[in-house]
Amino acid sequence: MPSYYESLSMVALEAWAIGRPVIANAHCDVLLGQCLRSNAGLYYADADEFGAVLERVLTDDSLVDRLGRNGRKFYDEHYSWPVIERKYLDMFAFLSSNASTYRMERVPGWFARKLRSLRPAAQVLDELPTGPALDVDDRGPGRSAPQRQGAIA
């Protein structure tokens, strides 16, 4: 995973879910941290390290197997559906059992936000002047465009 800017790498999680190790960019704090916490990935900081890590992964089957098992265990403990579901249910239970110390104002619903505060477009168009338009050249020297009713000068 060469990204510098991951917040949570789905690629890494998918690899660990199927028991495969990850090679990650050490300049990405999140990926580096996940590799260290999971003990399921190797990381590199430059091209030489990338080459060495890749060579190791391609030639050391026992290392790949250990990293893959660690990744599967890490995924099962932190990101499998039952774990995620339990975290959500625990959060909802906590939020519903603790009274808020702050009362939020009610946000108006969709219909209330769509109340008409402006005239309909058809009415605005009907009030515009009609007739032939004047080109800038047709006004003559020193003459400005005609003012519309209610327009700001």
Task: List the SSEs and their pairings.
Blueprint: H1 10-17, E1 22-25, H2 29-38, E2 41-44, H3 47-59, H4 61-78, H5 81-97, H6 110-113, H7 121-126
Parallel strand pairs: 1-2
Low-confidence stretches: none
How helix-rich are the residues, as a percent range? 40-55%
Task: Report the C-alpha radius of gyration, rounded.
Answer: 32 Å
Number of strands: 2
For the sheet with most strands, the description reads: 2 strands, parallel
Specify the structural class: mainly alpha
Mean pLDDT: 85
Shape: elongated
Tally of DSSP helical segments: 7
Description:
- By secondary structure, the chain is mostly helical.
- It has a domain at 10-97.
- The protein contains seven helices and two strands; from the N terminus they run H-E-H-E-H-H-H-H-H.
- The chain has helices spanning 10-17, 29-38, 47-59, 61-78, 81-97, 110-113, 121-126, and strands spanning 22-25, 41-44.
- Strands 1-2 form a two-stranded parallel sheet.
- Helix 1 (10-17) packs across helix 4.
- The mean pLDDT is 85.
At a glance:
With 153 residues, this protein is mainly alpha-helical.
List keywords for this structure.
single chain; 153 residues; mainly alpha; two-stranded parallel ribbon; 7 helices; 2 strands
